[in-house]
Amino acid sequence: MKFAIRVIKNQFHPLKVSSDANIKHGQLVLVKTDKGEEVFKVFLVNSEIQKLWEKHQPEPLSIVRIMTPEDLAVYEEQKKLEVAAFYKCRELAQRRNLVMQFSQARYTFDRKKITFYYTAPERVDFRELLKDLTQEFKKVRIDLRHIGVRDETSILQGQGICGQDYCCCRFLKKFEPVNTKLAKDQGIPISPAKITGACGRLLCCLNYEYKNYLDVAKILPPVGSGVMTPEGLGRVFMVNFLKKTVNVKLEDGKIKEYQKNDIEMIDGEVNIDIDINNNLNYQDDEVVDIKSLEDDKNSSTGNI
């Protein structure tokens, strides 16, 4: 059997485990990383992942020991100290009038190093803050680490509107560019509540099925095109990608849904008014700052 741990940002690393080690799935273990000794939960690696790792195996990490009852007591106390350190750091930053949004504080198990993760819209000169922290946390190495808002969400974790854990907390390691065109082409209302995640940026999952929508769009008449229906002349009002149907506005003002085989595209203009801009893609009662939704600059720094 092979075991692994998951560090921040969904990076899985196999563990160097001796054959006589009595390790079980879900146990907490102490592992030596580049930050120091840290506590992680053990995962049992299935056979499919083992095959993948034979070709591209991540760097194995050494296990120090399985957490003892005494270690677990120390770990519980450490988590309380991390919360206190988080609020203290935030207080010191506010005194210095620094624009920093702190996400988390993490001690190494030996408490020789503490890392503060933060987001900020611009570069921050935190030299004075670092001096304050050095005075507050004596004999502890201080690491102030700037991360992006997408990175922050992957650290803090949570559930999305789909009811599942955030993709960035489960399997997503690299963030792909996302823009509002993806939502428009899929017929999703351009509303922050519908197309943005907890990070305040566009949903990563807008990328997942985009190709399927493009494939359907190739076989259906686009919005605004003239078509001949069994009820007469009409103009496509909306495309239903998942159902592979179109809604057509007829000359009498009625809107009906048709399968592709029930209509025929025609050349030339059709004198039927439809409001394309208000075709479920825009919200009249909401002012949408498209630029802010698409601003992916430094949303993921890889600095975790």
Description of the molecule:
There is one protein chain. With 304 residues, this protein is of the alpha+beta class. The protein folds into 4 domains: 2-66, no CATH class; 72-146; 167-216 and 279-304, no CATH class; 224-276, SH3 type barrels. Helices cover 27% and strands 26% of the residues. The protein has 9 helices and 13 strands. The protein has helices at residues 47-55, 69-95, 127-136, 149-156, 167-170, 180-185, 192-195, 210-217, 290-294; strands at 2-7, 11-16, 28-33, 36-45, 61-66, 101-107, 113-119, 141-146, 226-229, 232-240, 245-250, 255-259, 264-265. Strands 1-2-5-3-4 form a 5-stranded mixed beta barrel. Strands 12-11-10-9-13 form a 5-stranded antiparallel β-sheet, with no helix packed on it. Strands 6-7-8 form a 3-stranded mixed β-sheet, with helices on both faces. A hairpin with a 3-residue loop joins strand 1 and strand 2 (11-16). It is elongated, with a radius of gyration of 27 Å.
- Overall, the morphology is elongated
Mean pLDDT score: 86
Please list the strands of the largest sheet in the order they lie side by side. 1-2-5-3-4
Number of helices: 9
Distance between the termini: 29 Å
Helix content: 25-40%
Note the beta-strand portion. 25-35%
Largest sheet data: 5 strands, mixed, barrel
Which class of secondary structure composition applies to the elements? Answer: alpha+beta
- Low-confidence stretches are none
Question: What is the N-to-C succession of helices and strands?
Answer: EEEEHEHEEHEHHHHHEEEEEH
Number of domains: 4
